[in-house]
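Researcher: Please predict.
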Amino acid sequence: MTTYLLAGGGTAGHVNPLLAVADLLRDRDEATVLVLGTKEGLESRLVPERGYELLIVDKVPFPRRPNKQAVAFPGRFRRAVAQVRAHIRERGVDVVVGFGGYASAPAYVAARREGVPFVVHEANAKPGLANVLGARRAAGVGVVFDGTPLKRGEVVGMPLRREVVELDRAAARDEAAELFGLDPAKPVLLVFGGSLGAQRLNEALAGSWADVLAADWQLLHATGERGEWIDPEVPGYAMRRYLDRMDLAFALADVIVSRAGAATVSEVSALGIPAVYVPYSVGNGEQRLNAASAVEAGAAVLLDDATFSADTVRDRVIPLLRDPARISAMAAAAERVGTRSGTENVVAMIDRALDDDGAGR
């Protein structure tokens, strides 16, 4: 029986694709699937809840400037690598798969020193440092977006949540409309910005929701948990702080306005939904890059966060809502650029790494 060690965590962007791959590996051949993560990351809760054993490695951030942390980094990193090497030996690990985050860098080094093949998966168009370093010696390197600058990167797509992969949007539309109190026969604009929300998007909708309704569209708006937003409580406008059934929100959406996280772009494209992306301006610019493939394919529109406002909704979004031919063309383009087979593609890459390792021994 093969033993897999999947490394990653810290954020949902690392944990969710890891769990999607873990589920397929476990379901396919009852393999032993172990997860490597830190005590501090989101994985410390989500991995055990999903029924997987979490092996712990110290959290050792790469130093960004010369300071006390930089001086202590080499020793701390060596200890983290030693921890992972011990896990690999004690559990008889056959292959390591890294998804980025603090756990991945020591996992790649440990796997190489133990003579175990490892595979890298990068979710963002702008790769993290751990995956940049790991890709140099990896048996396989999978990326979500074409043009991701990783050595030997192969576009495999994003391993998606099962409820998204299996979603039949047309069949679920009536159920979704009932859940959110909307009319299944009228088009719906879905706006969301993540679990905490996006203040810029919320402020823009606060001043333009009436214009969306006047265009004969309905609005499903997830404000997030941060901030207080007044629900106008009018027919056709469903405001929620959080969407517990994101799959049903997607089933109801005819056009989406959202941030451009890697998971969001991947899910929206896989489902063939036209999108207006407003990339989060803080960070290293990865959200704009995440959206680039969809924009170039004609599946999405890109708008700047700094200038996004109620006037932007009226000037740029409303004309799109009034153009059904353009929406249809964008939906077709999204289906071409997106994929629901990311999980299977990553597992196939893992299988190749194992086969090549076996042939080379």
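Model: Residues 166-337 form a domain with the Rossmann fold fold (CATH 3.40.50.2000).
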